[in-house]
Amino acid sequence: MSAPSGASTPIRAPGAVDRVVGVIDRVSTAAGWLAGWLIVPLTLAVAYEVAARYVFNAPTKWVSSLTYMLYGSQFMLAAAYTLLKGGHIRTDVFYERWSPATRARIDTVSYVFFFFPGMLFVLHAGWVEARQAWAIGERAGGWPLYPFKAVIPLTAALLLFQGLSELIKCAQVIRERPR
Fold this sequence. Notes:
- This protein is an all-alpha fold.
- It has one domain (15-175).
- It has helices at residues 15-37, 39-55, 62-77, 79-84, 92-95, 100-136, 146-175; strands at residues 139-140, 143-144.
- The protein has a two-stranded antiparallel sheet.
- Helix 1 runs antiparallel to helix 7, helix 2 runs antiparallel to helix 3 (62-77) and helix 6 (100-136) packs antiparallel against helix 7.
């Protein structure tokens, strides 16, 4: 789901609502930027493992856990940015043929009845899991696992906020439709 008018032409809401949408969109962009930079330690870890395994014949166990956590974090933290840019899956064969107002109505229904309930569930379940992981100091392959598990509810919260921004944009499109 994305802004019905396309990610390249943001809908401007007046006043305070415009500022809220702008802040949410900037936070999602920052999370996407952070996610993008996680490729650096991920690449270094994989390069280290390749060198250790094939050059020194001394494979490690800890790199597997580290790369799992880094890639998972990168994937999750990029989700809100992907929503902002309209990169999530949708059936474009139908969607692109609809008017912006029809797209906005379909997106509104999808956000309200599917997206928000699903993300609230992920937020709750992720929070419970992360809290338990922090309480027991959960580890994997020598690495602390609890920061990785904390990314799950963080991702859900970022997606909920970006979903709110997209819902506001949908409302603007519906309200501004030609008469």
